[in-house]
Design goal:
Strand content: 15-25%
Largest sheet: 6 strands, parallel
Shape: globular
Helix content: 25-40%
Number of domains: 1
CATH topology: Rossmann fold
Radius of gyration: 14 Å
CATH superfamily: Flavodoxin domain
């Protein structure tokens, strides 16, 4: 079985909390934890299966560490890579750009040949707009720690079951 990397900032509270739950839900799988703040193109290309933790900052922006890594990814061919994205967001206080980071990074990766997996229904959320929407699904897993924290564990468990089918 191909190794999988889960890449997120080790310095983020909510994204790191979600990443730990995702790793626990994978149980027996061999998943490497990689700090997004230290990622390189060479390290990124070592994996065929990647799970990326991407919070949305401010009014719909990528965090600095992802934004600064994009130029390095720009020249890479990501064909053959299966990538799932998760990210925290706040649908009540930021309803017009709920989890935009997932969509920004997802589209960027698709343009370079990556295959996105782990799409989730938007019907469980209450928001106005999101760059992460494709049709009636998000391009990954939104987690709202502010308004729906009690649903995070169940959503992660369900998402990981889906990923096991889509990644392997």
């Amino acid at each position: 079985m191909e190794k999988t990397a889960i890449i997120y900032s080790f310095n983020t509270v909510k994204t790191a909390q979600a990443a730990k739950l995702i790793i626990e839900s994978f149980a027996d799988e061999n998943i490497d934890m990689v700090n997004a703040e230290d990622i390189t193109g060479e390290k990124f290309l070592q994996y065929k299966n990647l799970i990326l933790g991407v919070p949305t900052w401010f009014d719909g922006e990528l965090p600095n560490y992802w934004d600064e890594f994009l130029p390095e990814l720009e020249e890479l061919d990501l064909k053959g890579r299966r990538i799932a994205i998760f990210g925290p967001g706040d649908q009540r206080n930021y309803p017009e750009n709920f989890v935009d980071g997932i969509g920004i990074l997802g589209r960027f990766l698709e343009e370079r040949g990556a295959e996105l997996v782990g799409f989730t229904p938007a019907s469980e959320y209450n928001f106005e707009k999101s760059a992460a929407l494709r049709g009636k699904k998000f391009m990954g897993l939104p987690l709202d720690f502010e308004n729906q924290a009690s649903r995070n564990k169940e959503r992660i468990t369900r998402w990981v079951k889906q990923l096991k089918k889509e990644l392997y």
